[in-house]
Amino acid sequence: MFDLWIMFTVIRFVLTLNIEEEISEIRMAVKQQQMEIRQLQSFNHILIKENHSFKTAIRQLEEDNLLMRKDINLTIGSIPSTEHSEFKHDESLKRKRNTTGESSLQNSRRAAAVGSLDHVAFYAYMSKDDPSLQKHNQLVFDVVKINIGNGYLNNTGVFVAPSSGTYVFAWTLYTGNHGATYYDLMVNGEVYGSTSGETDDVPGDFDSDSGTVVVSLNTGDNVYFRSVIQTTAFILGKRSAKTSFSGWKLY
């Protein structure tokens, strides 16, 4: 019986301690919230003062604007009728000149934009060998030397026509030794041109194959190279001779 009483006393003591700790934490939280509320009230008071100052400044500006309008009306009213007519005429001429100038500027900008789309040209080459032998491997000519019109994308190897017209595309592909390569020039996913290379099984035997096509493209059409079938040789890029791809707009 005595043991039960001791156990009950200990449990009650522990519960009392826990309750006191929770009460202490609650008091601290309430105190913290009260401090934050006072800070917010102080900040709100500052905002109210600033808002009042802004309203006063706005009213002053409105009054100044009204006075300026009255002064302008009085000045115009004091001008003789002939001078007043000349004043209106001068203002009309100024507006006409401004309108004409803006129109000329817009026409110049439109002409420049059209001109920039009419001038399209790019040249890029590979800086490293392409080790892929897979079918439909797409070649990426990563080094761009010129890209007028920004039509060529060196991260994908795809040329996207920035404007409609007739284009010329030229290429040179170098095939490594001990095998053969077969590549197509693709226009919107359709075969438009082809090239192949084959080398003997002797050291240092490389094959160079070039081609040129003329293509009619619409804005947004894409042109790129991909392998026809699985190849047995690399396309070379780390050589003095460059595996390259170029194109330009004729008209």
Automatic annotation (TrEMBL):
Q: Which UniProt keywords apply?
A: Secreted, Signal
Q: Where in the cell is it found?
A: Secreted
Q: Which GO terms describe its cellular component?
A: extracellular region
**What stretches pass through the bilayer?**
none
Renumbered to this chain, region (Disordered) spans 83-108
Q: Which Gene3D superfamilies does this entry report, sorted A to Z?
A: 2.60.120.40
Q: State the source organism's domain of life.
A: Eukaryota
Show where the C1q domain sits: 115-251
UniProt lists compositionally biased (Basic and acidic residues) regions at 83-93
Q: Which residues form the signal peptide?
A: 1-16
SMART domains in the record: C1Q
What is the official name of this protein in its record? C1q domain-containing protein
Native organism taxonomy: Eukaryota, Metazoa, Spiralia, Lophotrochozoa, Mollusca
